[in-house]
Request: fold
Amino acid sequence: MRDLCVVSGPGRMTLLSEIKNDVATFNRHLSYVAGDSAIRYVFDREPRRERERPAILSMRLETIISLFQGMRYKMPPPEIRGKLSESEFGEYYWKLVERNTKKPYELRRDQSADIAESFTEALSKLESSLEGEGFERAKRFPAFMSKLLHWSFPRGFPIRDQQSLKTMACAARENTLGLKKCSQHYLSRNYIGVVDFFLLLRQQLERSAGLDVLARLEEFDYTSQAVPGRLRERNTWLRVVDKWLWLRGRQKR
Reply:
C-alpha cells in the first residue's frame, strides 16, 4: 500500500484530504447515513429504572445485528439472543454504563489500557453467556462487540471489522503511523492494537493539520451527510475515521 499520508498524482492529496474525500463519498449514500440516524435514535433511549435494562439492551443488540450485520456469521436465533440481556454479559454491560457515568470513556493514551481491557472482558462475557449454545467464539463476535461498545460509548471505543482492519494493517506494514505490530492477524485478535492505531492516527493528524483537526473532521462529516439538516447525526471522530477505514477496506476486495 502507498504511504497513507500522500496520494500520488496531481494535487498530492494529504491524509486529511483523503479521509474527507472518502467520508464525503460514504455520506452521499443515503442508506449509510440513514443507518447512523436510526442506530443513534435507539441508543439514545436510556432506561429510567433498572427493570427496563433488559429491554433496552435487547433493542441495542438487535439494532447492531440488523443495521451493522453484527453476528452475521453463525448468528444465534432470537430465543438465544433474547437471553443475552439478562445474562452475565448483560450484567457486565450495565457495569460499563455505570462506569461511564462516573468517568466517561474517551480514547486517550491514559485510558487506552482500560478501554482495551473492557472490550476484552465484554467479549469474554459474551462468549461465556453463549457457552453450550453452539456459538462459542464465532469469528463475527469481535466486530459485533466493537460496534455495540462504540455506539454505547462513542468517544471511547473504535469500531473494528474485517474491512477496517485491512486498511489498518496496510498502514502498519508501511510503518506510516509507527504502529509496531504489523499484521491484520494481530490487529484482529488484539483490540489494544486497534486502540493504538487510532491514537497514532490522531497524533499524526494533529501534528500535520492542527490540534482542532478532529473537531473539524466531525463538523465536515455532519455537513456532508446526504439528509436534511434536522436528520443529520453528529458523529465522533472515531466514527468519522471508521467510515474512511471501512470504505478503503471495502475497495481492497
